[in-house]
Amino acid sequence: MRLQQPRTARQTAMRQRKVPIRTCVACRTKGDKKGLARVVRTPSGEIILDPTGKMPGRGAYLCPSPECLRRAVKEKRLSRALRAEVSEEAIRQLERAMGQGSKEM
Asked: Is the entire prediction scored with pTM above 0.90?
């Protein structure tokens, strides 16, 4: 068992936190986790927008733009990433939720 040396103030200040990087399923643009919208398929099978990024279930990331959502649905990339068929009602709910979120940003 090795004892760790106490860190100096300088060593602690130099250490940087890693920023999680995610990829948009539609346009394949990479960005930090907070800059992308997470769509999640919950364990009950519901497909919703996850504003916190911490909901349980299978997730996929999209740029917060309607174009990326349309492209992901059209090319079935969202269905493939979530491993579930995305219904028309779920698409409409995502469009509404992303539309409200983009106005706040």
From this structure: no
